[in-house]
Specification:
Length: 127
């Protein structure tokens, strides 16, 4: 009897070292606003993805690669204002990379992701 794989041969598994993203991230739905550098008017947006390296937002505003913005949002009890650069534009979805994020804010974001999304799952697994 011939040995057959349970996996589709067209699926390629990438080595972790080949992954583009090296930092923890998770899907979210957080009301926020941003200000484009050089502009004073805040624009509403929704944070849809959050990680320690950056975030994704949905907005009706037109943005371009390289635009610099400041995103303002509330994570838990903390109000954050984070400087970002646009690194991906796909319709209304905008990928942002953090710029010079202070270590304290980086640690808070990491703690927020872990405590909000992962600690609860770990507690459910314990007998």
């Amino acid at each position: 009897m011939a040995s057959q794989s349970f996996f589709d041969d067209s699926v390629q598994i990438r080595d972790a070292a080949q992954q583009k993203r090296k930092k923890a991230r998770t899907g979210v739905n957080i009301a926020a606003e941003f200000v484009l550098k050089g502009q004073g008017q805040p624009v509403e947006c929704t944070v849809t993805d959050l990680g320690t390296g950056g975030l994704s937002i949905n907005t009706r505003s037109t943005m371009y690669m390289g635009d610099q913005i400041e995103v303002r949002m509330r994570l838990g009890k903390e109000a954050l204002s984070v400087p970002c650069t646009v690194v991906r534009v796909s319709g209304k979805s905008i990928g942002l990379q953090f710029d010079r994020l202070p270590e304290q804010q980086m640690e808070y974001i990491q703690h927020y992701i872990h405590s909000t999304f992962f600690d609860k799952k770990d507690q459910k697994k314990k007998p």
